[in-house]
Amino acid sequence: MAISSVGAGAGILTTDVLDKLKAADVAATVTPIDSKITLQKQKNDALNLLDSLLTSFQSNVKALDDDSLYQKRTVSGNNDSVSVTADTGVKVQSMSISDTVMAQKNVVESGAFSSGEDKVASGEGTMTLSLNGEDFTVDYTSSTTLDDLKEAINTVSGGKIIASTLQVGTNDTRLVFTSGSTGTDQKIIIKDSTDGSLVDALKQTDTIKSGLFTASDSLVASGTPPLSGSYEITMNNTTYSVNYDETTTLSQLTDKINTAVGSDVASLKQVGSSYQLLIGSTAEGEDSTFKVNDVGGFLDPKLTADITNNTATEEILKASDASFKYNGITITRPTNTITDIVVGVSINLLKDAGSANINISQNVQAVNDELSSFVTNYNTLTSQLTSMTTSNVDKGTTGIFNGDSSINNITREINKLLTSINSDGLSLSQFGIDLDEKGTMSFNNSTFTTQFMKDTKLSEKFFSGMTTTTSTGGTVTNDGIFTSMSSLIDRYTKTNGIMDTLTSGGKEESTRLTDGKTKAQTLIDARYEAMTARFIQYDVMMTKLTNQFSSLQQQIDMAANGTAS
User: In terms of residue numbers, what domain contains 389?
Assistant: First the structure.
């Protein structure tokens, strides 16, 4: 209920007066709390900013205290023929690499097929591919195509032998076998089962084929009896001698060859109505020693002169090891990436006839970069600390933490460490890090590099400390300047540390002030609600009294007028 006027009906107390009274009470009680809340929020925001800056600064400090920073290595001398990489902590060293020969994979190409849909066999059988002592078998039938065989090989070998088809010309498609790795032990050997029927285009073993005979019992020698001689067959660097005479037939010669060799290398093949002697080498792959010779001179020329020596498959690229000279010593390895000469060093051969002079040194630039970041974060941190803790008379500003010793101490403690000198007589200023009269830090990377490289071990000890073993077997640990600084900053940034305590206290103070403001406002609101209610009641009573007085006045006036008359 609005009050137009309260008190004796004459407007002694109005709503406007009550509002002014309430505003005065709010200004005296609530407004000061509001100001404190605003100030505390500013402090909380400043504490959060300061905590973030200290955390970033601590990140740089910890990096400079980390031994791994000083174990980083840089490699110079790499070129397009030799590339070397070095792991962290590798011994600083130099090496020469020359006369490089690249390791190669084995690449074998089949004979010609008209397309990938060509059949690879006339019947059933098993193809075996051998590589480095491991066999991979593929079963085939008369319906197996070249594409089918390719997919089956890739499946069973698991990438150790890679099969692919290559169209080299019109109606000329080849199956290409490639070893998955390099090295001399990666030679691919292709075999058919004993009773297999792979087409000739997939045969890898060298085969000598005689001329055509009219029958399997055709005589193989002619001349005036009695006659004798020997058929010499050289294969796989071994010569086998098979005796013959005027009664020896083609079929008998076949059996004698197999007996002499100890293996079924010879067979008769019917070609139309004729017969042909086939002799396969015992060598795996091509056999450069494979040949036949007639000792006696009585054999049919079809067994010595009218022959063909061929293999359908062709070795396109010979499997070979890599070789190179390492500091003048010849080294061979099965791969072009060598990691077992120096622990943590990888030598990569990129082309033949290459050479390089490699230098592995400490990566000073990594330390340089971290110091540059340290200086930047230090200046950002201390600039904020200065504005938070000092007053500027000219500008009329006062830092939000002016006079707060816990915040003021941060810069003082950091600078005390920055300007300290260790037991070896070293200080940051010798490494190009200086503070001017305003407290701004600068960094001269040239000065740093020169000083650091004078004695990298001593420099590392100054920055991150070092643990040494005494003559009695004990250890002595010397903290570096950034070890000490990390411990200092950790006091502020760790859980339950100084910043955590200040931040938590700030939040609690904000909560306390907000609760206090709410309570004060509630009390004022309740007081003026009660006051308004009481004066409304007084107004009703005064109105009644005023009305009664007015009625009495009329009676008095009427009586006076009557008397007068």
Answer: 28-68+365-501
- Do 351 and 370 fall into the same domain? no
CA nearest to 281, candidates 229, 231, 238: 238
CA–CA separation, 232 vs 254, rounded Å? 13
User: How many Cβ atoms are within 10 Å of 495's Cβ, its own excluded?
Assistant: 5
Give residue 485's pLDDT. Answer: 94
* Burial status of residue 105 (CB atoms within 10 A of its CB: 0-12, 13-18, 19 or more): middle
> What is the value of pTM for the model shown?
0.66
Same domain, 412 and 495: yes
Residue 468 belongs to a domain: yes
Asked if 378 and 301 sit in the same domain, the reply is: no
Angle CA 258–263–267, to nearest 5: 50
| Ranges under pLDDT 50 in the chain | 1-11, 564-565
pLDDT at residue 563, rounded to an integer: 55
Beta-carbon neighbour count of residue 3 at 10 Å? 17
Cβ atoms of residues 258 and 265 within 8 Å? yes
Specify whether 304 is located in the same domain as 334: no
Backbone φ and ψ of 406, nearest 5°: -65, -35
Final residue belonging to a domain, choices 202, 231, 247 = 202
Q: Which pLDDT value is given to residue 10?
A: 44
pLDDT score of 310: 62
Is residue 552 assigned to a domain?
no
The reply to whether 97 falls in a domain is: yes
Q: By three-state DSSP, how is residue 310 classified?
A: strand
Please, which residues bridge with residue 201 across strands?
none
